[in-house]
Amino acid sequence: MQQQDVSTEVRLEPLFADRLDQVLLVEQRAYDHPWSRTNFLDVLHSGYHAQILMANDTVLGYFVAMKGVDEVHLLNITVAPEHQGQGLAHTLLDALALWGRYQRAQWVWLEVRVGNQRAMRVYEAYGFRRMGQRKDYYPAGGNLREDALVMSFRL
Ligand SMILES: CC(C)(COP(=O)(O)OP(=O)(O)OC[C@H]1O[C@@H](n2cnc3c(N)ncnc32)[C@H](O)[C@@H]1OP(=O)(O)O)[C@@H](O)C(=O)NCCC(=O)NCCS
Questions:
Q1: Neighbouring C-beta atoms of residue 106, cutoff 10 Å
Q2: How far apart are CA 149 and CA 132, in angstroms?
Q3: Is 123 one of the annotated active-site residues of the chain?
Q4: Which fold has domain 10-154?
Q5: How does pLDDT run across 93-134, given as a tens digit for each residue?
Q6: Could you tell me where the beta strands, DSSP code E, fall in 5-95?
Q7: Does the C-beta of 112 come closer than 6 Å to ligand 1?
Q8: Is the CB of 86 under 6 A from ligand 1?
Q9: Does 126 qualify as catalytic in the annotation?
Q10: Alpha-carbon span 134 to 8, nearest angstrom
């Protein structure tokens, strides 16, 4: 992480459409198969829960989740590449868990590409457990698909 001035204001805030240009720049650098602007607009219009972690006007990371019956489903969690490796995913997961508990959810569910070992390690370190696999869940370039591992965390 870059050395920050003590006056740096680090905060979580709701993700609104006016931040999407910044978010898309991070998204496109973080993934081989990034969400599009339309994907983000769809989830924002659907009222899903989306928060962004900011340091002054710099995007550190963000997540998007939806409420289910007794669970919240994590749809996107991303830390900007230049801020990865500093434990910020943990901060985002804490914010997600806090929101989930206030929704009276009992579980967090997520899918992760079977090839995304780094994310899996982060989730397992946080307390997520492997629940199963969804075959060919993700696009993987060309006609290829990649399986998803389903993980859950008890709130
Ligand atoms: C997965 C992700 C959210 C983790 O966020 P994070 O804040 O970097 O997580 P951490 O700081 O706990 O670091 C996780 C691990 O990645 C390692 N790491 C961080 N940046 C790295 C890099 N550029 N190259 C290789 N390893 C790196 C860390 O050392 C750490 O390893 P460890 O578990 O052995 O200690 C983040 O890497 C990311 O946004 N990746 C791209 C998007 C993505 O895959 N999202 C999840 C989709 S399910």
A1: 14
A2: 6
A3: yes
A4: Aminopeptidase (3.40.630)
A5: 999 999 999 999 999 999 999 999 999 999 999 999 999 999
A6: 10-14, 49-55, 58-67, 71-79
A7: yes
A8: yes
A9: no
A10: 42
